[in-house]
Amino acid sequence: MIICLDVGNTNMKFAVYDGETLKLSFRIATEHKRTSDEYGDQVLSILGNSGIKTSDISGGIISSVVPQLDFTLERMCRTYLGFEPLMLGPGIKTGLNLKVDDAKEVGADRVVNNVSAVRKYGYPLIVVDFGTATTFNVIDGKGRFVGGAIAPGMKGSLESLVSGTAKLPRVEIERPKTAIGTNTVTNMQSGIFFGFAGLVEYLVRKMKREMKEENVKVIATGGFSEIIANEISCIDHVDKLLTLEGLRYLYSLNVTES
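Above: the chain's sequence. Below: its structure in token form.
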């Protein structure tokens, strides 16, 4: 078995694979001040409760957009799980051609999502990831990552709205019954939910025009992908495991063939 770890700004997503079979997936909060011992204790507890022994895990891979935690999580893997993790970064084989101004600027999460999407769905593609940020990734008809867009995330936008005003409350992000809200809560829900639905629909439409490609598929992943996909017609597939499956593939690509 191997363990795949996708470290985001808000959450860390874990998956344990036995070959290509997903045995367990879970997430924990990303907290910069936690130690490797604290993370290790929590991960061991979750694995143990699921009947997975550390001796069953032979290796793992980490994709991180939080560099401050890289050493902490590497140490956690060595100390508590018994292996040296493969860190996604320079020198790792991905098979993805990055046709952008500076390949070093492309986040690890975007690379993994693009690799995974190309393997599963072919190309041309637009991959939309609803994470702490909302990222749009464009794969052209030759299978090359040619750029995209980065917009605020839904939770971050709501937090900015609440923290920047004196009277607006924190609300749940969910689809209100109508776009015209009749109270403060539904006004805010309308602005966030329908606003992001419109953002996605407009950007995807504009990107497709600029790509000048036929049969561009749109793949959505991340926390709010499902509820947004139910609202708009431009998303072809929702794939919540896109990143973790990409990590599993990259582990096999780099370790098995090394």
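The chain has a mean pLDDT of 93.
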